[in-house]
Amino acid sequence: MKKLRAGRYAVIAQEYEKETMPLEVEITDNQISQILPQEPMIPGSLEESVFTKVPQEIIQKQSIDVDAITGATHSVNGLIQAVSTVIEQAGGDPADFKLHSNSKNSDPSSKTPDLADPQKTFASWRNKPEQVVKEYHTDFLIVGAGIAGLAAAVQARQLGMETIVIEKNGFVAGNGGGVEGIFGINTKMQAAAGIHAEPEDIITKEAELGQYRADGSFWVDLINNSAANIDWLVDLGVQLTNVDDYHGTCMFPTFHWFKGGFASVGYAPYMKKQADKLKAQFLLETAATSIIYEDGIVKGVYANTPAGSIKISAKATLLATGGVGHNPKLLEAQGWSTKNIHYCSMPSNTGDGYQMAMSVGAKDFLKESPEFMMNYIQALPHEGVHLYIDPINGFMSLPAGGPVVFVNQDGRRLVNENVKKDNLLYQRMAIKSTRVTYEIFTQKIYDQITKDVPKADQILAQAVKTNDGDSLFKADSFAGLAQAVGLPENVLVETMENYNSYCERGHDLEFNKDKDMLLAMKEGPYYIARLDPSNLIGIGGIGSNQKFEVITNDFTKIPGLYAAGMDSTMQYRDVYTITLGGSACAHNVNSGRHAAIHAQEYLKQNN
Hints:
- The chain is 30% helix and 20% strand.
- It has 17 helices and 21 strands.
- The termini are far apart.
């Protein structure tokens, strides 16, 4: 082993989403003695978890082969690479600091076959582990520490219930960390801004957009509780900055922005601080692997930890695991194609709560629940969880539609390409019914859509050149586009000629697209791009009542079991109505908070 030169070394660790953390690494007596972050970190965040826990392990073991932190692989790898760089700068060989293999937790998401008989299909989620290394007992167990789980934890402790929160990741917030804001109506912030809306107008519009398929009482409860829930959050220290209509996409200016534009900044740190102050017990890197169901009552879960399996006995259990948005088999069961899918969700959102609930006979709403599914173009830049807000490839830009043309596998138009004006998530709904869908646009249209994006033309030219996934082609004619992707040449040419005639007369004779979106495509170059799915979150799946008690097919509650956050959301059917911006986050807070309130009532009745 080469001797290391003592000293302090400055290095930059690469994190997720191209963020960085400057570090100072100290070498003393041929050992790594300190690894010190040089910037402040948000308490309880992924970043804090990585840059406190992993350096301690590296220093203790004198090895860069450290245990992974669930949900933080990219940042852990960036830290390891930074330390490896320092070892080299000090004259050493990183290979000398690889002493043992990484240990990894088992992944319960492998248990995801078809949904023919959910209780039988997911029966493995009731298995007992062969060995339990530790047992816990509590009043209220919360599975998941995202938006809903944190709200439930604070409310439960305010009510005096002994509370344990388990979280698969090594940090709190989970997928909810990327949430930008929360819905509220007639709040103090709105009053200060001179904003007023009638609850019945919103409830009526939501029912209309949902084709009157949901039980509207869920909307009534959510909307009528929204202002009180926001007051509660603000009293707890949650930071909200302003209220508007979320980039002009909402029917009403009801979107309350979190400080920093994300819940990981404005919500999670403050709620975790309150939960800690109230002495809720958090077990991180603890993944539920099966549910305890005895005598028709849910009595807790078994969970996997770095030290082995544990048993948590609870008088009431809340599932708040964030939905199914990162589980391809469950997405396919909903009817979505997952070929070439890009995930904007946390890898931990694999439907654990849904599968546990199904294993004890819960009512299955998965096929009727919506996904936050959008379009993206594989050849264009698409890294990271924030693809959805990318100025070129995001859900409000080029692949979302507008003055472009969508055609199916037969070369025919299939939808009003500007349907996003009614609901941003309508951009993908019709595509669910096709084998493949392509978007056609010209250079002029692209320049119009990306006029405020620096170097947009260079980005497009590079994308055509590298053509990731064979998903983007350029041609001088419509026939050339058809040949590039294998569409029927005569059909596509006819489709585009008809479309151009609609543009000339200012009236779309097929889908009645808005006149200002009818831009004729008579000058090349022409482009054709395959529209692939990009999923942000999964919404719902577990049937529940207004008390957030999990129900069976006959609407009988399953004693001791509750569902909140993205595991429930009974107010939606098939499509998330993003026209009411922040309603999912509002539901997360409302369901987490009120599940805890009703769980306390259940405990009083059964003790």
